[in-house]
């Protein structure tokens, strides 16, 4: 009987998760902010944290389970909460800047992060993009948070006690707090940051309680100081309340600014006189309005939850770093001068990750926010002299490439206007021909411009990866140059440089390989060796990084048949590796090893586009198969829901695009390469007022292969669709099947753009 009951429950659960949902509503409620949080240093299932914020908000809030300064600030396997932290952290590897936290407690009040930590359970935790709640078991206190763009409202529910406290932790590396009892107010700043060089950096905060303090004390580290104002290495405050009745709520309104205390007070007006529930409802409405740009229909519960949970992750980074002053002007703190400057600024993204799909996604669905981002990049260049490649929140010396070229060019190619593109173009030329500080510009640029590649033997790490990315970046510059009607000589220079990838192609192995400055290939060469000539990958991953000339790469390999055989080999090989460059197995290697997809490493960015390359060689059904395999196996709306670092929206944007049925293999062109649509119907509500509807009424886990396509009622033969066709609005109709159509998309006239054949 028990066995039968278990089977019944199992099949009911399976059915409820697999049943089709006609048209989900209240879209924010489908999101799981805990997706990807079951991660660690050794193995990433996303390396995310529950971000309680508004889309592209200046601040996010998260429960803090890790100790102060730990990049793994929230992990699903933790059992204690140390505080509720304002964060700007793009990833644990980058860590945070300007953090501070609040923590309620009862009994013995303490500012010590170890002593104040409380047990909690996920069973008494509610995590939504617009609202977070958790029961702190050691204190019988419930904490709730709801955000605005630059502020947040807290609600603490206490038991009856004469010993209720809220600890305010301004963190170490220089902080300040002032108590203003007459206004129930605490002000302070945190000057802690992990990356780059920041001038005059402070995150100023103001906290206003709705209940008078009984007492409030200040602490420098663990030493209590009898004063109402204190600065030092690590300043905290302990605010004391007497609670006369059970379930008494104390509210706190919190805002911050990178500019001044006065600006923090201005930012607090985002809440104004709104009570907690009003702020919460407004935040929920903002999320639903943003998410409704993409309305899906006809998916399973799991697919819908995964889709909107990944869409949620594409809407945070880079974060707004600009504020609105008392005159209504847009201003920002400049990390380059330490001064307040006019205009937009954003921070918290690495272009090595996000040029691939995140920025193309913004250009398609949310172009107005990327217009602001482009203006922010312009201010980075004006104030700092370079475009950032990784901003957190200033230039950060990590990763490779000059992929700001792609981010700028793709925006303009996709139709964004209304900003100084000529100045941005000059910024691209500056970065392309000079080596800058903190991973800006191009390391090894003199070698690259003279030899056509960065040599392996000149003490410049990851030389082959740099060469391949520089070549693509040169292509992006050449496309923008054409649109700006630059001199033909200038266009030709960068277009010719974009062919530099050919210098590294080894005809013996049919793979990319490091090359010495005398023109000989590196020896010994192990294509399974991670790092060394490549970045967080091996030759089998990076060989495909010729986004702009896949046909040229295919011909180097011996033609389309040999090219697809090489693509097949990625999945057929065992997931073996050489990790000697790192002296140990880094998490990206482990994530490839355990995925059971051969050498395909979806958990990191360099190879994520490779699945779509079958479209360039007449075998699109293989793209359709592998896209579905990755969507179905590597993404779940669960704490272990990613197969590697989520990385500021990039790995999520891959899923969102792929679920729609196409992907931007080569940003700075106008083409999206076709895959296998996941849902029966998707409606894109475009910012130009048009709607573009993708229909696949018979799609299913079995019917993953594209049999026929019609665009606006007419047969469509190409293996790609243009950005312009989508912006016009219309209907893209897929007829799916459970067996491949091996005749569709096999002729060269259906293949996507390659520079060698389409120039």
UniProtKB/TrEMBL annotation:
<dbReference type="InterPro" id="IPR041371">
    <property type="entry name" value="GH92_N"/>
</dbReference>
<dbReference type="GO" id="GO:0030246">
    <property type="term" value="F:carbohydrate binding"/>
</dbReference>
<dbReference type="InterPro" id="IPR005887">
    <property type="entry name" value="GH92_a_mannosidase_put"/>
</dbReference>
<feature type="domain" description="Glycosyl hydrolase family 92">
    <location>
        <begin position="263"/>
        <end position="737"/>
    </location>
</feature>
<feature type="signal peptide">
    <location>
        <begin position="1"/>
        <end position="18"/>
    </location>
</feature>
<keyword id="KW-0378">Hydrolase</keyword>
<dbReference type="GO" id="GO:0006516">
    <property type="term" value="P:glycoprotein catabolic process"/>
</dbReference>
<feature type="domain" description="Glycosyl hydrolase family 92 N-terminal">
    <location>
        <begin position="30"/>
        <end position="257"/>
    </location>
</feature>
<dbReference type="Pfam" id="PF17678">
    <property type="entry name" value="Glyco_hydro_92N"/>
</dbReference>
<protein>
    <submittedName>
        <fullName>Glycoside hydrolase family 92 protein</fullName>
    </submittedName>
</protein>
<dbReference type="GO" id="GO:0000224">
    <property type="term" value="F:peptide-N4-(N-acetyl-beta-glucosaminyl)asparagine amidase activity"/>
</dbReference>
<dbReference type="InterPro" id="IPR050883">
    <property type="entry name" value="PNGase"/>
</dbReference>
<keyword id="KW-0106">Calcium</keyword>
<dbReference type="InterPro" id="IPR014718">
    <property type="entry name" value="GH-type_carb-bd"/>
</dbReference>
<dbReference type="GO" id="GO:0005975">
    <property type="term" value="P:carbohydrate metabolic process"/>
</dbReference>
<comment type="subunit">
    <text>Monomer.</text>
</comment>
<dbReference type="InterPro" id="IPR008928">
    <property type="entry name" value="6-hairpin_glycosidase_sf"/>
</dbReference>
<keyword id="KW-0732">Signal</keyword>
<dbReference type="GO" id="GO:0005829">
    <property type="term" value="C:cytosol"/>
</dbReference>
<dbReference type="Pfam" id="PF07971">
    <property type="entry name" value="Glyco_hydro_92"/>
</dbReference>
<dbReference type="InterPro" id="IPR012939">
    <property type="entry name" value="Glyco_hydro_92"/>
</dbReference>
